[in-house]
């Protein structure tokens, strides 16, 4: 089966969030199952100028905004594999500005939408309307950035009377929808697109929702965990699209993300000063304790007999960062040391900074406002517990990484957090989004922590939990088979 994955990020070339990790890892697992899988992402300026653009480049012209536009297709391979990775370069729409135009990454401004509309058109013209580059059986789109592609595939197929590729659409985060003015349709492919009843219906209120188009026009939809697939059918998590999703519910599935076991491996992780094996509990605990000592030095925390609670996250409302910061005093009062690492919304960064200033001399609390993979890995390796108090969470990767590094997760029981953490067995789960329930779970964790035997069992369960991509990749293959059936 020939599959083209299309997305806005792909680790390690471009990563802003978990989406990049998924797009960088899933193809490797699919390849092992025998699929001819390839990936295409935008050729952002940063990639092109750091040599990531790869060896081979070819020029093409595509139609956008009523005229021919030059694009350059770069081809390289996904790191440590022979999986082809393409970048599409275009000076005007794609390759000026950063990876995402807004620093918060998730605002879909007019320019951002135009960029991804253009990128989507280029993908379809290269990989659907011609057969000399790569003609996939199936195009796997991810999030709003690629949401218009299933509609474009159908429009294109009508022109060229080719059997069209099937379309799978994965929702990583329904909160970011890419809401555009309708005029983008004319630049994309006016006439043909307007023949679609779904477009007509969506455009009736004078705007177009890219993620909704992706959901409604693709052959099969999935979210990144089974629980989130159910949650988005409700008003609480559906972001206004719950009725549309319910209407399509027979084709909406949930496939849990995995993590890359080769990348997240405490035994080989070059970011750690002390590596440790996961073979025995004793080695895990010894390794963690050595790392904790060093991290305390690195972050100016005092050396003492206290549990360390870590949090590594984008600092956004989704992640419940406000709830966590508001709980820091109580956490210190309970005898914890606390470490937070991340960047994101300015208001949350400021809130964290002001809390840190207040506690500057406590020696028990550190807040680092940057994206630093090395510090992140050392936090996973050193923390006894790891907090993920999200308002909603499509899957969440940090709780799985934490488990692999022997840090016991304390999570809110929503979406993928609920599907990956078993209360009292591989972590501690709370349900209501409020401080008292969060602190209640922390207290339960601390009580278990105080009994070496019980704690040892929980840590062992965590490091032995299997979150490999192999299982998820097999589920994707089944999903792809469904999509092929529905599209023919
Ligand atoms: C988004 C979601 C997160 C998920 C990731 C990868 O960032 O918020 O829950 O793990 O995508 O699918």
SSE map:
Blueprint: E1 2-6, H1 18-32, E2 36-42, H2 45-49, E3 56-64, E4 67-77, E5 84-89, H3 110-127, E6 138-142, H4 149-160, E7 166-171, E8 179-181, H5 184-194, H6 197-203, E9 207-209, H7 210-217, E10 220-223, H8 226-231, H9 242-247, E11 252-254, H10 281-298, E12 308-312, H11 321-333, E13 337-341, H12 346-358, E14 365-368, H13 373-382, E15 385-388, H14 398-404, E16 408-412, H15 415-420, E17 428-430, H16 435-449, H17 452-464, H18 469-487
Helix pairs in contact: 1-18, 3-4, 4-5, 10-13, 11-12
| Count of separate structural domains | 2
Within the largest sheet, what's the order of strands? Answer: 3-4-5-2-1-6-7-10-11
The unique ligands bound to this protein are:
alpha-D-glucopyranose
| CATH-defined architecture of the largest domain | 3-Layer(aba) Sandwich
Q: Structural class from helices and strands?
A: alpha/beta
Fraction in beta strands? 15-25%
How many strands, which pairing sense, and closed or not: the largest β-sheet?
9 strands, mixed
Indicate the CATH class of the largest domain: Alpha Beta
Q: How many extended strands?
A: 17
What gyration radius follows from the Cα positions, in whole Å?
Answer: 23 Å
Arithmetic mean of pLDDT = 94
Number of helices: 18
Instruction: Kindly identify the CATH topology of the largest domain.
Output: Rossmann fold
The helical percent reads 40-55%
Distance between the termini: 15 Å
Which descriptor suits the 3D outline?
A: elongated
């Amino acid at each position: 089966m020939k599959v083209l994955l299309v997305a806005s990020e792909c680790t390690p070339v471009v990563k802003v969030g978990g989406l990049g990790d998924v797009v960088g890892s899933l193809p490797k697992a699919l390849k092992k199952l025998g699929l001819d899988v390839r990936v295409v992402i935008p050729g952002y300026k940063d990639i092109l100028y750091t040599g990531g653009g790869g060896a081979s480049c070819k020029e093409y012209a595509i139609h956008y905004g009523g005229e021919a536009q030059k694009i350059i297709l770069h081809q390289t391979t996904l790191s440590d594999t022979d999986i082809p990775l393409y970048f599409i370069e275009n000076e005007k729409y794609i390759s000026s500005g950063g990876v995402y135009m807004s620093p918060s990454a998730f605002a879909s401004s007019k320019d951002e939408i135009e960029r991804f509309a253009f990128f989507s058109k280029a993908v379809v013209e290269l990989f659907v309307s011609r057969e000399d580059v790569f003609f996939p059986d199936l195009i796997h789109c991810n999030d709003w950035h690629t949401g218009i592609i299933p509609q474009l595939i159908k429009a294109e197929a009508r022109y060229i009377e080719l059997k069209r590729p099937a379309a799978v659409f994965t929702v990583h985060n329904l909160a970011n929808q890419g809401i555009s003015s309708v005029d983008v349709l004319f630049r994309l492919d006016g006439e043909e697109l307007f023949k679609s009843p779904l477009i007509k219906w969506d455009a009736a209120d004078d705007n177009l929702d890219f993620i909704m188009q992706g959901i409604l026009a693709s052959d099969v939809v999935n979210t990144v965990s089974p629980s989130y697939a159910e949650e988005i059918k409700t008003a609480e998590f559906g972001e206004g699209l719950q009725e549309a999703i319910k209407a399509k519910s027979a084709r909406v599935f949930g496939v849990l993300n995995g993590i890359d076991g080769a990348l997240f491996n405490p035994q080989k992780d070059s970011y750690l000063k002390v590596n440790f094996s996961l073979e025995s509990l004793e080695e895990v605990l010894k390794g963690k304790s050595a790392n904790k000592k060093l991290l305390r030095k690195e972050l100016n925390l005092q050396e003492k007999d206290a549990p360390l609670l870590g949090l590594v996250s984008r600092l956004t409302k989704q992640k419940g960062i406000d709830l966590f910061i508001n709980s820091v005093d109580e956490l210190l009062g309970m005898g914890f040391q606390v470490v937070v690492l991340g960047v994101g919304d300015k208001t949350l960064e400021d809130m964290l900074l002001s809390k840190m200033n207040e506690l500057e001399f406590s020696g028990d609390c550190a807040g680092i406002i940057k994206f630093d993979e090395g510090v992140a890995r050392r936090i996973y390796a050193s923390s006894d517990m790891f907090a993920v108090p999200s308002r909603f969470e499509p899957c969440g990767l940090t709780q799985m990484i934490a488990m692999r590094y022997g840090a016991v997760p304390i999570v809110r029981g929503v979406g993928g957090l609920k599907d990956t953490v078993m209360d009292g067995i591989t972590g501690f789960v709370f349900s209501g989004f409020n401080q008292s329930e969060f602190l209640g779970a922390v207290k339960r964790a601390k009580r278990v922590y105080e009994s070496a035997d019980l704690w040892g069992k929980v840590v062992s369960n965590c490091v032995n939990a299997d979150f490999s991509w192999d299982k998820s990749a097999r589920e994707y293959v089944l999903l792809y088979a469904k999509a092929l059936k529905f599209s023919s």
